[in-house]
């Protein structure tokens, strides 16, 4: 799975992973991070998620990272915003007053371009990445954000019943990635309605709060 996989998904409109509404677990529990108004939240692999609009409504500043430029353009259009577009090395930067989104590889998004970050909202990154890349990603985000609190959403299901992405991320996997740097709290786990994930397999969605040790 490489960049062309995701570019093709967006080009074909095959974006079943995109949620049409705010994530319910985020709306219910994000305040548990206890961030101040004006805090800076990093949203990696953000797509065109509406969750960014909710974060902005709460008074946070948001920086996203996304591989697909089409997704980023749709994100700003959906928010009714006209961004300033500039180039920063390998990244294209879309920016308004309180929202910046970098188009490119998340591994090119460093502390230099992010500036001080107060929290990470991982709504779709861990579950989008295969195991070897997931490990690199988790370490990269911890390194480049300075081990700030994270609000992480995962799915769990019988991986043998359906190929990812989204991949099944068990509690043991979360611990393996993060428990050297964070105290892990499982906030809530909810069973997906109907036929489950992609309408194919029973699954649960879990919200985690990661607090730096």
Q: What distinguishing features does this structure have?
A:
213 residues, alpha/beta, 9-stranded mixed beta sheet, 7 helices, 9 strands, 28% helix, globular
Mean residue pLDDT: 91
**What percent of the residues sit in helical stretches (DSSP H or I)?**
25-40%
- Helix/strand order: HHEHEHEEEHEHEHEE
Estimated radius of gyration: 16 Å
- What is the total tally of β strands? 9
Q: Give me the secondary-structure category.
A: alpha/beta
How many helical elements? 7
Please give the largest β-sheet.
Answer: 9 strands, mixed
- Uncertain regions spanning at least 5 consecutive residues: 14-18
Briefly characterize the structure.
With 213 residues, the protein is an alpha/beta fold.
Please characterize this protein's 3D structure:
It is a single chain. This protein has 213 residues and is α/β, with parallel strands linked by helices. The chain has seven helices and nine strands, in the order H-H-E-H-E-H-E-E-E-H-E-H-E-H-E-E. A hairpin with a 3-residue loop joins strand 4 (91-95) and strand 5. The longest helix is centred in the middle third of the chain and has 15 residues, at 131-145. The chain is globular. The N and C termini lie far apart (33 Å). Residues 14-18 have low confidence and may be disordered.
């Amino acid at each position: 799975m490489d960049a062309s996989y995701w570019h093709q998904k967006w080009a074909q409109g095959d974006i079943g992973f995109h949620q049409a509404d705010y994530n319910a677990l985020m709306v219910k529990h994000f305040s548990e991070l206890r961030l101040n108004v004006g805090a800076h939240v990093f949203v990696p692999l953000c797509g065109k998620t509406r969750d960014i609009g909710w974060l902005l409504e709460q008074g946070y500043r948001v920086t996203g990272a996304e591989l697909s430029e089409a997704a980023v353009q749709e994100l700003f259009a959906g928010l009714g915003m006209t961004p300033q577009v500039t180039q920063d090395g390998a990244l294209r930067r879309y920016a308004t007053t309180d929202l910046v989104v970098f188009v490119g590889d998340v591994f090119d998004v460093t502390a230099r371009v992010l500036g001080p970050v107060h929290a990470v909202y991982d709504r779709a990154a861990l579950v989008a990445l295969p195991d070897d890349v997931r490990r690199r990603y988790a370490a990269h985000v911890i390194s480049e954000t300075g081990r700030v609190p994270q609000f992480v959403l995962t799915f769990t299901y019988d991986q043998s019943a359906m190929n990812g992405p989204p991949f099944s991320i068990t509690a043991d996997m979360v611990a393996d990635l993060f428990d050297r740097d964070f105290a892990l709290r499982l906030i809530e786990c909810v069973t997906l309605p109907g036929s489950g994930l992609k309408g194919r397999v029973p699954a649960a969605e879990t919200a985690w709060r990661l607090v730096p040790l």
